[in-house]
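Data availability excerpt. The first of two example chains:
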Amino acid sequence: MAAEGQPETRSDKMRIFWVIGIIVGLVILVYVWYTSGTGGVFAVLKKWLFYAGIVVVIGLVVYGVMKLLAKPKIDLVENDRQDIIDAAILSKPPMVKDLYFTGDKDHGEFRVGYIIGYCQLQSYKDLDLIAGLTKVQVEEMEKNNEVPSQFIIKEDCFVFKKMSPPFSMFEQPKVLRTLEDEHSQLIGDVKIYGVSMIKKYGYYFPNRGHLDIARIDIAIIREAWRGAVFQFLKDMVSINQRASGLDSEFKKDMDKRKLLKIPSPLGEEESRR
């Protein structure tokens, strides 16, 4: 149930609907059993199962048609996450096994799941700062033993699943993004130096770094921005192909030309040649 003063969510409404439906069904079964005995109860249950099967079949058909006709939604953050999963599964070192969190003096070590993929990402903390550096500024940084590469963040991405095979086939892969110094060596069981993990934007991060804006927010936003640019370039082909259909005046003019053109019994000049 929703908290006092807060609107009910969709899940709350569905829960109320199911509770009322179950209560009404039980009342009907008790009344049938009281009036017609056990045989009447079985007859009612048989009818309910029959009608429920019809509703399920119709619902699946409607759902399938809606899925086919619905315009696909583009989730740029999810696309980036799926790209990381695909790359990590292909580049997983064969020696890594399970994923653990070490905890601390008050929290014991615990297993998170088994690793199915690993890859490393590199991104800048602030791309605007790097892009805005002039040649003179870069030279000044080099004199002070500072280079733009110091602004680079190297993240290790572990793709894991909680359940073991064969039950893991029904579980979606999860991505944990850590810094190089936040985990043990990539040999055997990998241990993350932390108490727990926090989920942000579909990814998991160790609890110590979930507020690192430069590491999380800027990286996710930049990756989504790049995905938007690539998606726009990809859609340009279909936009150009449909340009004539989008311009109604141009389409009308083309249709008029086709109607006013008088066909020749000898065919087109190029065909006669």
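And the second chain:
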Amino acid sequence: MPSLRRIRWAKIRITAVALVAVAIVSTLFYLLTGGTLLQPKVTLYLFIPDATGLARGSPVRVDGIGVGKVVSVTLTRSNNPDRVVNLAMTVERDHLSEIPADSTAQISSDTLIGDKFVDIDSGTNPNPIRPGAEITYKEQTAALLKRLDLAQFESQLRIIDATVTDIEQGRNRVGEFVVGEQMYTDLQRRLADLQRAIRDAVDTSTAVGSAFYTDRLYRKISDPLLELDRALARLQSGQGDAGRLLRDSAQYEQLLKSAADFRRAIADLSASDFAQSDRLYADWNRRLASFIQSVDEMNATPLFNSSEWYDNLAGALNGMRDGVREFRQDPRKYLRVKLF
């Protein structure tokens, strides 16, 4: 059972979420209404003979600028054919000064087939219309003729006629689709390609079909994962060198012991006479100086300073070489046998 503290915290969170949701909905509603939800409004009335195309929510414009909307469309049951329908309109109070008292209204649309709206033409009276007053209705025939550009309408009709002619003769994409068979053939070929692709997808002998309807792809993915799982299990159970290293601390202790021995060897070397005193260094220096002195004395002897010894030795060797050459050429000159 949840504790009292958790229940209170849940209530606080629910309350916070509800408040945030209400704030978001209020903001959205305010923005969707154009930011005019809290602005004061007044009601104006308009009597018209026919309300075709008008409904609750239809815009109300003054010289093309939106100032309100229609809030109700009711029948008056009047015998006057010009006052059959009563339109109640709400207009923002700030825009009331833009509607003179002698203004007139008519039912208009942006295009010939567009949605209807109440179009108020501002008059010339310096006094604005009063809240709850009636606006005079004006027939829209003159306004329609004023807004309708016959030359432009004829131009649009010519464009439509040319487009329909192109469609009938197959000179554009729509005409090719309606009259010709090329687009139909292309569509049929693409549908055939799609059908073959679907057939290949459901065929287990293809790569796509085997991937969808067999477990080969699954095994290709799962087998390495299973092998990895088995390897981790072997490591966890202490099998192999890595497993024994993870589970048995003997190798780790041996490594620690080797590191300790190495540290002791370094400490012994640091504490030795070689590292602590310069006696060995002085002995080596003295011996090296003695050796250098011996070499200098040897270089100072006549054997190295004069070429006499070299010349005598070279002469003796040359004489020996000549004697050997003569002996090889005429050995009898040197081998004389004397008989007694």
